[in-house]
Amino acid sequence: MEQRNEKAQRARTGALSRRSLLRAAALLAAGALGTGAARASRAEARLPQDQVSYQNAPKGDKRCKDCVNFEGQNSCRVVAGTISPDGWCRLWNARRLG
Predict the structure, then answer these.
(1) Residue 9 or residue 20, greater confidence
(2) Fewer CB within a 10 Å sphere, N or C end of the chain?
(3) CB-based contacts of 74: which residues, under 8 Å, 6+ apart?
(4) Binning pLDDT at 50, 70 and 90, where does residue 13 land?
(5) Global pTM value
(6) Is the pLDDT reported for residue 20 higher than 60?
(7) Which of 1.10.340.30, 1.10.10.10, 1.10.3720.10, 4.10.490.10 would CATH assign to domain 46-98?
(8) Angle at 73 between CA 67 and CA 75, to 5 degrees
């Protein structure tokens, strides 16, 4: 009975138990690991250049730098590897202006 009174007292005063602190720490750690794994899986989800017919030269007026997937710094959201701003692939999609 005395133990219940102690728990009730702690609940009223907002005191944290060691167990609740450890649980919170474990949840935070799990969340951090999940976020890192999600980032890694996005990076791995990029397609190889040969699968999307990537070429370092533009196709007409279509260039990677004008595509919605081009991230700058020679990088693309969907195609792996170094991407030339003047390149092109089958996934090219015009960036909307304004």
Answers:
(1) 20
(2) C
(3) 82, 83, 84, 85
(4) low
(5) 0.55
(6) yes
(7) 4.10.490.10
(8) 55
